[in-house]
Amino acid sequence: xxxxxxxxxxxxxxxxxxxxTDAWTxxxxxxxxxxxxxxxxxxxxxxxxxxxxxxxDLLRALLAFVLADHSTRSLGxxxxxxxxxxxxxxxxxxxxxxxxxxxxxLLSALLAVTPVRPVPTTRRVRLIDATMLMHTGGGRxxxxxxxxxxxxxxxxxxxxxxxxxxxxHLDHYPLQPGxxxxxxxxxxxxxxxxxxxxxxxxxxxxxxxxxxxxxxxHGQAFDLRAWLRQPGGGVRSWTGWCRAGGHRYAVRLVAAPxxxxxxxxxxxxxxxxxQRKQRGLGADARFLAGxxxxxxxxxxxxxxxxxxxxxYRARWQVELVFKxxxxxxxxxxxxCQRTEVAEATVRALLIAxxxxxxxxxxxRQALAAExxxxxxxxxxxxxxxxTLRQAVCGxxxxxxxxxxxxxxRRYLCGSPRRRVQQETQVRRWxxxxxxxxxPPMAS
Length: 443
Fold this sequence. Notes:
Blueprint: H1 14-17, H2 23-28, H3 36-42, H4 55-67, H5 72-81, H6 89-112, E1 125-134, E2 141-150, E3 155-163, E4 180-183, H7 190-198, E5 202-206, H8 224-228, E6 236-244, E7 247-257, H9 260-276, H10 283-288, E8 291-296, H11 305-313, H12 316-328, H13 339-366, H14 377-393, H15 398-403, H16 405-412, H17 422-432
Parallel strand pairs: 1-4, 4-5
Antiparallel strand pairs: 1-2, 2-3, 5-8, 6-7, 7-8
Helix pairs in contact: 4-13, 5-6, 5-16, 6-13, 13-14
């Protein structure tokens, strides 16, 4: 049945209906690996041409899915309007279901590209942390994104996606000799020291006294509480050893008292944690909560205690990266019931982030001459994400919408097998109701 046109609507012109080649072709495609198509076929993400012309079109659709927060139904309508494909909602779900391994390969390929470093350096400072992504309808995190932020290069260094059951440890990251790994208490275990030292890397880790026992040169247990209670405030340092996997590792402990307000908040957090685990909170635990304890394998001659603490506090930058990622990419709870679809969705989000980081790095380098005016990482990322979103999602006119309306019917109209739409019922009832007849106008 043809779609009736509005009496005053003009027939769309050929120029209005045509979909122009946009920034996707000229700006995004050159950044992608040349063997993208071959890997899509090898990994079964794009086996046969069915409504989609190429694997790059599939990638654009997957990026639009996450950048515009589409459902599979609205994704189908978008693809029609930009002239990409005309697939059913179930067909798009199937594409998402099969895309995970291919998107994982693409993410690794994009991260493998060596960035142009803004400053000459022989070592990398890598901020290690993980963030959670939730499933809709559940209070528990479903996915853990293990993130390595290369602070010296100003970009994502590596990333690993696991389920929530997998904990935080350095085995998730490809370590290189000379790397300096900075991480919070989630990695503050002797195992982390051993993993880094085997790879020739160094660590700067926040620790907790109970889970990181130390010993002196003679193998005797180090009494941390007694050491901290000695006279003399301020930052203090001690050199000793830790044991892991049957080996001893030389480490340096740096301790700094927290400011009173931070110490109070830390004590309150410790008390809440003890209450959740139904255990008492002793005076020693309250006392230790007021200290920042950092263990490192870096040499004291190169990294004095105050500089080491400044390096550790730079770890907060990775938290700001997580905040930018989730707010600028509009990340929210994943609306996926299948594990494969959730995995593909998260990987598409990470690919979008890597692509915008490359643009941000170019802009930052171009602005480097303005040394007296520091570049805002937030504004830079916001502009880069907006540019990427525009290149991927494109745009259309009202004339284009009218021209495509017949093909959009299946996305705009509900299925007859579903429950009757209440709004449609009410409108139909009112149109036939005798009380809706307008009274005659007074002469």
